[in-house]
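Query form — protein Blue copper oxidase CueO

QUESTION: What is the three-dimensional structure of this chain?
INPUT:
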Amino acid sequence: MSERKVYNDYFYDEPAFNTHDGGYIPLEVPDVPEHKLNIPGILKPDKETDTDMWYTVDAQPGETQILPGEKTKTWGYNSSILGKTIILKEGKHMHVTLKNDLPVLTTFHWHGLNVSGPYVDGGCHAPVYPGTSNEIEFTVDQPAATLWLHAHPCPETSEQVYKGLATPVVVQDDIESKLPFPRNYGVDDIPVVLQDRHFHKGNQLNYKEDYDPDGVQGPTAMINGTVNPYFDVTTQKVRLRFLDGSNRREWRLHFDDDLKFTQIGSDGGILPEPVEFTHLMMVCAERDEVIVDFRGYKPGDEVHLYSDDVPIMTFKIHEFAPDDTKLPDHLIDMPPFAKVDKNAPVHKAAMSGMDESVEINGKKFDMQRIDDRQEVGKERIWEVSNSNEMDGGMVHPYHMHGTQFRVLSRNGKDPYPNEHGWKDTIGVNPGEVVRLQVKFDFPGVYMYHCHITEHEDGGMMLQIQAYDKQDPHKKYKLMNMDTLLNALSKEEGIPVKDLDIPAMNSYKKMGIHMC
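ANSWER: The structure tokens for Blue copper oxidase CueO are given below.
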């Protein structure tokens, strides 16, 4: 095994870090006792056979003991906050009951899952109304990866995620199972959902009071729903499945003693080669799987994980058995880049603006409008750009539904070292053009957007129809704004004109009516 290069910087443009935002809220060290890290349980299938699995995923309100004193009113999936980890097995046919016990309509978006859209994918066109349930089916046909499920009822995605509707989804396959990785869930293989919150009087969340059109942030780091968490290290090596589940915050991760860690996976699966870091930056919705080797520590030692200059989690070292397992220099085979028709048009996604002025390709989201088309099964080039140079600009995390893409280049140069695997979300620096190779496997309507959730709710989102050449003009029933507003009005028992939806100000201030 050759000596690997260790990367010690965050790669992204420092002047564009969220720390330079006018509305930036820095993390603070919470003045609360430390608590054992909450590790989500695994959701038990309703039934499983050799070929099929059945799940019920229940969006429900609850109360969670996050801080000392009063419990916080939260939402979760089969849980009071966040949810239980959902295991999907490659090749299995899934039957999922989506149950809504919330007082408002919601949707269930399978972020990173390669399924048909828009109804199975679970964007804004797949509402599940209060007290009802929907049934979906799909076959898992993608590599082992850490994905996630979250609410996506535009323009209220942000508030519902902020209240807790986000949970890990783990795809398993035979290739990953043979690699020398930790995989004892809850012991040496743990999800780490990175979020931040602002707690108000009585330990409650108040999304509308905290609203910022450039993304809601809070001073308190919340990891798996735990504030000031610690994790008991009982094995030499620990696999951390990081998920940036924040509305806005970027996480710049490092250990207090610059302990080296090895990244083995990104959004859509295992990387072709392991990459070693001391510092790692994540933008909203990205997932990074890393292995941390604690061989140099003894029982009683503590190792602290930081974001920027604030500790967010403590690893408490206990006795562990020696582990001399070596990671191979090559982990998986990525398929060669397929040839792209040189005469095919290059698709464009030009992100621009801040606050209420955010757009893609000079447009705001319209539920009834199809903004682009791409034939199913065809490889195409996309150029994703960020023209935002206001006050140094900001990094926009770009996400595509219904596909995992390959990153070709950043401003004509190689992508970052950990971007050589499958991705569905990528941070784009101000003034940068990122080239992607994209293929859709299923026909349907999918969204592509900035994953600062307030930006997508505020209109920084468009739609593409992936079409089958046998039925290129297939029509889909798409949700419209009047139907949505009338449903919300009924749920809240107030006239439509009195609804308080902060993201809608992004349309009103620009004189745009969202259809």
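ADDITIONAL NOTE: The mean pLDDT is 95.
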